[in-house]
Protein backbone atom coordinates (compact mmCIF):
# COMPACT_ATOMS: atom_id res chain seq x y z
CA UNK A 1 0.00 0.00 0.00
CA UNK A 2 1.32 3.45 -0.88
CA UNK A 3 1.54 5.55 2.26
CA UNK A 4 1.71 9.32 2.69
CA UNK A 5 5.25 10.60 3.19
CA UNK A 6 5.66 13.01 6.10
CA UNK A 7 7.12 16.35 5.10
CA UNK A 8 9.73 18.49 6.83
CA UNK A 9 8.06 20.35 9.67
CA UNK A 10 6.18 17.30 10.96
CA UNK A 11 7.56 16.77 14.49
CA UNK A 12 7.60 12.99 14.04
CA UNK A 13 10.55 13.40 11.65
CA UNK A 14 12.72 14.89 14.43
CA UNK A 15 12.37 11.89 16.79
CA UNK A 16 14.86 9.06 17.32
CA UNK A 17 13.34 5.76 16.19
CA UNK A 18 13.06 2.61 18.28
CA UNK A 19 14.96 -0.59 17.58
CA UNK A 20 13.05 -3.51 16.12
CA UNK A 21 12.89 -6.23 18.78
CA UNK A 22 11.20 -9.04 16.82
CA UNK A 23 12.09 -10.24 13.34
CA UNK A 24 10.10 -12.28 10.86
CA UNK A 25 6.75 -10.87 11.98
CA UNK A 26 3.71 -10.12 9.84
CA UNK A 27 3.85 -6.50 11.06
CA UNK A 28 7.45 -6.04 9.88
CA UNK A 29 6.67 -7.70 6.56
CA UNK A 30 3.64 -5.44 6.05
CA UNK A 31 5.67 -2.33 6.94
CA UNK A 32 8.37 -3.27 4.42
CA UNK A 33 5.80 -3.93 1.69
CA UNK A 34 4.26 -0.49 2.28
CA UNK A 35 7.72 1.10 2.25
CA UNK A 36 8.60 -0.61 -1.06
CA UNK A 37 5.32 0.48 -2.65
CA UNK A 38 5.73 4.04 -1.40
CA UNK A 39 9.39 4.37 -2.43
CA UNK A 40 8.70 3.06 -5.93
CA UNK A 41 5.61 5.24 -6.40
CA UNK A 42 7.70 8.31 -5.49
CA UNK A 43 10.80 7.30 -7.54
CA UNK A 44 12.83 7.33 -4.33
CA UNK A 45 16.32 5.89 -3.93
CA UNK A 46 15.47 4.98 -0.34
CA UNK A 47 12.92 5.38 2.42
CA UNK A 48 13.03 5.24 6.21
CA UNK A 49 10.12 4.02 8.33
CA UNK A 50 9.80 7.37 10.16
CA UNK A 51 9.02 9.04 6.82
CA UNK A 52 5.72 7.17 6.77
CA UNK A 53 5.07 7.79 10.46
CA UNK A 54 6.46 4.54 11.88
CA UNK A 55 9.14 5.22 14.54
CA UNK A 56 11.19 2.06 13.94
CA UNK A 57 14.83 1.65 12.86
CA UNK A 58 14.02 0.29 9.42
CA UNK A 59 15.27 1.59 6.08
CA UNK A 60 15.08 0.40 2.51
CA UNK A 61 17.17 1.60 -0.40
CA UNK A 62 18.18 0.62 -3.89
CA UNK A 63 17.77 1.64 -7.49
CA UNK A 64 18.83 0.73 -11.00
CA UNK A 65 17.78 3.74 -13.04
CA UNK A 66 16.08 6.68 -11.36
CA UNK A 67 14.89 9.93 -12.98
CA UNK A 68 15.57 11.81 -9.74
CA UNK A 69 19.25 10.73 -9.85
CA UNK A 70 20.07 10.29 -13.56
CA UNK A 71 23.86 10.16 -13.10
CA UNK A 72 23.96 7.89 -10.04
CA UNK A 73 25.36 4.38 -10.16
CA UNK A 74 23.01 1.49 -9.29
CA UNK A 75 22.52 0.63 -5.61
CA UNK A 76 21.47 -2.93 -4.66
CA UNK A 77 17.97 -3.13 -3.19
CA UNK A 78 18.31 -3.69 0.56
CA UNK A 79 15.95 -3.94 3.52
CA UNK A 80 17.99 -3.03 6.59
CA UNK A 81 16.75 -3.30 10.16
CA UNK A 82 18.56 -1.73 13.15
CA UNK A 83 21.42 -0.36 11.04
CA UNK A 84 24.77 0.71 12.44
CA UNK A 85 27.19 2.76 10.32
CA UNK A 86 30.96 2.90 10.67
CA UNK A 87 33.10 5.29 8.66
CA UNK A 88 36.12 3.62 7.10
CA UNK A 89 38.13 6.79 6.51
CA UNK A 90 38.02 10.48 7.39
CA UNK A 91 37.51 11.39 3.72
CA UNK A 92 34.22 13.08 2.90
CA UNK A 93 32.54 13.85 -0.41
CA UNK A 94 30.09 16.62 -1.21
CA UNK A 95 27.06 15.64 -3.28
CA UNK A 96 23.58 16.81 -4.20
CA UNK A 97 20.73 15.23 -2.25
CA UNK A 98 16.98 15.39 -2.33
CA UNK A 99 14.42 13.82 -0.05
CA UNK A 100 10.85 12.63 -0.32
CA UNK A 101 10.20 14.50 2.95
CA UNK A 102 11.62 17.73 1.49
CA UNK A 103 9.92 17.73 -1.94
CA UNK A 104 11.06 20.07 -4.66
CA UNK A 105 14.42 20.93 -3.09
CA UNK A 106 18.05 19.83 -3.46
CA UNK A 107 21.16 20.61 -1.47
CA UNK A 108 24.86 19.75 -1.31
CA UNK A 109 25.66 17.57 1.68
CA UNK A 110 29.05 16.30 2.89
CA UNK A 111 29.05 12.55 3.60
CA UNK A 112 31.67 9.99 4.53
CA UNK A 113 33.22 8.58 1.36
CA UNK A 114 33.59 4.99 2.63
CA UNK A 115 31.40 3.26 5.19
CA UNK A 116 30.52 -0.15 6.56
CA UNK A 117 26.93 -0.79 7.48
CA UNK A 118 25.67 -3.63 9.58
CA UNK A 119 22.23 -4.65 10.70
CA UNK A 120 19.71 -7.34 9.94
CA UNK A 121 17.40 -8.42 7.17
CA UNK A 122 13.68 -8.75 8.01
CA UNK A 123 14.19 -12.33 9.21
CA UNK A 124 17.00 -11.40 11.59
CA UNK A 125 19.94 -12.56 9.45
CA UNK A 126 23.04 -10.38 9.82
CA UNK A 127 23.93 -7.96 7.01
CA UNK A 128 27.43 -6.44 6.76
CA UNK A 129 28.61 -4.46 3.72
CA UNK A 130 31.18 -1.86 2.79
CA UNK A 131 30.33 0.77 0.21
CA UNK A 132 31.39 4.03 -1.41
CA UNK A 133 29.93 6.65 -3.72
CA UNK A 134 26.20 7.06 -4.15
CA UNK A 135 25.52 3.79 -2.30
CA UNK A 136 27.27 5.18 0.81
CA UNK A 137 25.45 8.50 0.44
CA UNK A 138 22.01 6.85 0.27
CA UNK A 139 22.66 4.64 3.31
CA UNK A 140 23.83 7.63 5.37
CA UNK A 141 20.87 9.74 4.24
CA UNK A 142 18.31 7.07 5.14
CA UNK A 143 19.84 6.15 8.48
CA UNK A 144 19.94 9.85 9.43
CA UNK A 145 16.13 9.72 9.37
CA UNK A 146 16.26 7.16 12.18
CA UNK A 147 17.92 9.76 14.40
CA UNK A 148 15.60 12.63 13.44
CA UNK A 149 18.04 14.24 10.99
CA UNK A 150 16.96 15.60 7.60
CA UNK A 151 19.59 16.41 4.99
CA UNK A 152 19.12 20.24 5.16
CA UNK A 153 20.46 20.01 8.73
CA UNK A 154 23.79 18.79 7.29
CA UNK A 155 24.19 21.42 4.56
CA UNK A 156 27.27 23.55 5.20
CA UNK A 157 26.69 26.21 2.51
CA UNK A 158 23.09 27.36 2.15
CA UNK A 159 23.94 28.83 -1.27
CA UNK A 160 23.94 25.20 -2.40
CA UNK A 161 20.35 24.56 -1.32
CA UNK A 162 17.29 25.49 -3.31
CA UNK A 163 14.37 24.53 -5.47
CA UNK A 164 15.23 21.70 -7.86
CA UNK A 165 13.59 23.41 -10.84
CA UNK A 166 15.71 26.54 -10.28
CA UNK A 167 18.99 24.74 -9.62
CA UNK A 168 18.46 22.12 -12.35
CA UNK A 169 16.05 23.40 -15.03
CA UNK A 170 16.48 20.14 -16.98
CA UNK A 171 14.91 18.29 -14.03
CA UNK A 172 11.85 20.55 -13.81
CA UNK A 173 8.89 18.46 -12.67
CA UNK A 174 10.93 15.45 -11.51
CA UNK A 175 10.72 16.31 -7.78
CA UNK A 176 7.32 17.97 -7.89
CA UNK A 177 5.27 14.83 -7.18
CA UNK A 178 7.31 13.68 -4.21
What does the model show?
The chain has 178 residues and is an alpha+beta fold. Strands 1-2-3-6-7 form a 5-stranded antiparallel sheet, with helices on both faces. Strands 4-5-8 form a 3-stranded antiparallel sheet. The protein has one domain (11-171): Alpha-Beta Complex (Peptide Deformylase), CATH 3.90.45. It has helices spanning 26-41, 133-145, 164-167, and strands spanning 46-48, 58-63, 75-87, 92-97, 105-112, 114-120, 126-132, 161-163. The longest helix has 16 residues, at 26-41.
Q: What attributes does this structure have?
A:
three-stranded antiparallel beta sheet, alpha+beta, 8 strands, five-stranded antiparallel beta sheet, about 180 residues, 3 helices, Peptide Deformylase, single chain
Summarize the structure.
The chain is α+β, with helices and mostly antiparallel strands and 178 residues long. The protein contains three helices and eight strands; from the N terminus they run αβββββββαβα. The strands form two sheets. A five-stranded antiparallel β-sheet has the order 1-2-3-6-7, sandwiched between helices. Strands 4-5-8 form a three-stranded antiparallel β-sheet.
Amino acid sequence: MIRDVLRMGDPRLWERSNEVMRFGTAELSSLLADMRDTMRAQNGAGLAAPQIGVPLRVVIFGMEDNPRYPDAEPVPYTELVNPVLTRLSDETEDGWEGCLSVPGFRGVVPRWARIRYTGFDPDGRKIARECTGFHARVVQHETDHLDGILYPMRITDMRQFGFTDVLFPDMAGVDQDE
